[in-house]
Specification:
This protein is mainly alpha-helical. The protein is 74% helix and 1% strand. The protein has 19 helices and two strands. A two-stranded antiparallel sheet has the order 1-2. Helix 7 packs across helix 16 and helix 7 crosses helix 17. The N and C termini lie far apart (56 Å). The relative contact order is 0.17.
Length: 436
């Protein structure tokens, strides 16, 4: 803030002028080849390029609400730059090594999952199991059926429809969605995760736009037929089992040491998940990926209250660093290291529209009908358990719930994005093993 109380223009939290100077220095060093290919130089490059694009994308009208905003621009422009040869190969290799080689993406994904699941109030997780999780599963099944119908009409094989359309859409999101699913795909099938990721992120982005439109339509349906919805803050038709609001654990003030120790806590849980993934019995011939076990362990630790609150505060703070201040590193890194621009463009066609719409409508129908049978309001169940499964993760949840005028149901949206999404990762690891 300046003296008159107005906000200074900032790029990723940095005032515009110093950011501009640093941007020119870093990009000039890249163009001349004087920039190093070490981790510090790579992070600086991603922060400068991705940070600027992230802020620009978030301020473009319509684009920032309907097409992914800053995350999409920060991801696709660097990918296009690689495609056009505008980023020297030396630095492309450095980003690939940082993001995929030493696997910064694993660090980011694990903290994203831990930071989300460990702050959800445990009663929310417990209540969700009995009615909400079955509703999510019904949406996944119905989305798969409708997607198969739409895809086969367009001439696609069942394996192609399920693996390249239904699963990416129903997992939703990027860091905890398309990225881990592409890793599971490569591990299970032996095929390249990069090609799978490029298609998956394009398709789920397209589906996210459809989810926002359908959410607005469902809001209209609720107004026209009030019996199908509640007060926009209650999901359960029985008041005594309702759950409203974005219920989160009350965390203590974070200390610097808690943030440092968070890496060992999260790393230890992930190590346990890796061990379990290797020794646990296979399902239908396929191993369950460590990310899925990681989420299961986090849920158990949350419900049993096994992780101290000060540790959760440290984990949440580190997660906020990655998601709020390192957006450039995350999305520009994905664009350079994992996104093939030509593959991305190739899937934007009428076939994608038909199949994606079929999947989204299937999710709405499945969750609406099952939700009604289990005592939920069908419109609200369709929005939270259906559309919040098929959108772009946490950011998509905000936009979808905003379009449906049901922001007070964010807790259920969080369960869909995290718990429901983890279930889809488990399903994906099994289906990939069966179909490939």
């Amino acid at each position: 803030m300046n003296e008159n109380g107005s906000k200074d223009l900032r790029i990723q939290g940095i005032p515009l002028l110093p950011f501009a100077v640093m941007f020119v220095v870093v990009m000039g060093a890249m163009v001349t080849g004087y920039l190093g290919d070490d981790i510090l130089s790579t992070v600086a490059l991603l922060l400068a390029l991705g940070g600027l694009l992230f802020e620009i994308g978030n301020h473009i009208p319509i684009f920032n609400k309907w097409v992914g905003g800053g995350s999409m621009l920060a991801m696709m422009v660097p990918s296009w730059m690689v495609y056009q040869g505008l980023i020297p190969e030396k630095y492309v290799d450095a980003v690939v090594n940082f993001y995929d080689g030493i696997s910064f993406q694993t660090l980011f994904i694990c903290f994203l999952m831990a930071g989300s699941l460990l702050v959800i109030e445990r009663s929310v997780l417990i209540k969700s199991v009995t009615r909400y999780i079955p509703t999510i599963l019904a949406g996944v099944v119905c989305a798969m059926i409708c997607g198969l119908i739409g895809g086969m009409i367009m001439g696609y094989t069942p394996a192609d429809i399920v693996c390249n359309y239904v699963l990416p859409i129903m997992r939703g999101g990027n860091g905890a969605g398309a990225v881990p699913m592409s890793q599971i795909y490569e591990e299970v099938t032996g095929n390249s995760k990069d090609a799978f990721y490029a298609k998956a992120i394009a398709i789920l982005t397209f589906a996210n736009v459809l989810c926002i439109i359908v959410a607005a339509l469902l809001n209209g349906v609720g107004k026209q037929f009030p019996v199908l919805t509640g007060d926009k803050a209650t999901l359960m038709r029985s008041k005594d089992v309702s759950m409203t609001g974005d219920d989160k654990v009350e965390l203590p003030k974070v200390k610097l040491g808690d943030c440092g120790n968070a890496f060992l806590w999260v790393g230890s849980v992930f190590a346990a998940a890796c061990i379990i993934s290797k020794i646990a019995p296979k399902v239908a011939g396929a191993s369950i990926h460590q990310y899925a076990w990681f989420v299961v362990l986090l849920v158990i630790l949350n419900v049993t209250d096994a992780i101290p609150l000060y540790v959760r505060a440290g984990i949440k703070t580190v997660t906020d660093l990655f998601t709020k201040h390192w957006s450039g590193v995350v999305f520009a890194g994905i664009g350079i290291a994992l996104t093939d621009f030509s593959e991305f463009v190739s899937v934007i066609n009428i076939d994608t529209l038909v199949i994606s719409l079929a999947v989204v409508l299937g999710a709405v129908l499945g969750t609406g009908i099952c939700g009604w049978l289990l005592g939920l309001y069908p419109v609200d169940a369709a929005v939270t358990a259906g559309l919040c499964m098929a959108n772009r993760g946490g950011g998509g949840d905000v936009v979808v719930l905003g379009a449906a005028e049901r922001m007070e149901l964010m807790s259920y949206a969080a369960v869909s994005s995290r718990i429901g999404g983890a279930i889809v990762l488990v399903i994906a690891s099994v289906i990939f093993g069966i179909l490939y």
